[in-house]
Amino acid sequence: VLDVGGETRERMGELIPQVDRRLQNDGWERIVLVRESREQVRVLVFNDDESISGLVVMVIDDYEMVFVNIAGLIDLAAIQQLAGEFDIPGLEHLEGLEGYEEGDTGRDEND
């Protein structure tokens, strides 16, 4: 979590959409986009149709910026639970996403 304000906030607010586009061009999928007033929340995943192997969360408001990058097999329900326990903003938007059931990493039971 970075404290931002003024000119820094404006630069970071412009950088986040650029990073979002770059990640999508590299095969990442945006699963959450929230724009309310001056707050932005973007969550992207990298998957291969069988598992989620990367998660990026970018959040900015008038005062703070959060950038989270997680690599490896990911259980979105577990990430959301941790987000609540550690007060990580933006990850509450994962709740109820289609295709990401609680405890589901996307792996086959035989893996």
TL;DR?
The chain has 111 residues and is an alpha+beta fold. The chain contains two helices and five strands.
Describe the protein in words.
- This protein is an alpha+beta fold.
- The protein has two helices and five strands.
- It has helices at 6-25, 76-86, and strands spanning 2-3, 29-36, 39-47, 52-60, 64-71.
- Strand 3 (39-47) and strand 4 form a beta hairpin.
Largest sheet: 5 strands, antiparallel
Strand segment tally: 5
Helix content range:
25-40%
Q: Which strands sit side by side, in order, in the main sheet?
A: 1-5-4-3-2
Number of helices: 2
Order of helices and strands: EHEEEEH
Beta-strand content bin: 25-35%
The average pLDDT value, as a whole number, equals 78
SS-derived structural category: alpha+beta
N- to C-terminal distance: 35 Å
Give the low-confidence spans.
98-111
Apparent shape:
globular
Rounded to an integer in angstroms, the radius of gyration calculated over CA atoms is 14 Å
Topology (SSEs and partners):
Blueprint: E1 2-3, H1 6-25, E2 29-36, E3 39-47, E4 52-60, E5 64-71, H2 76-86
Antiparallel strand pairs: 1-5, 2-3, 3-4, 4-5
Observed structural traits:
disordered C terminus; 5 strands; 5-stranded antiparallel sheet; 111 residues
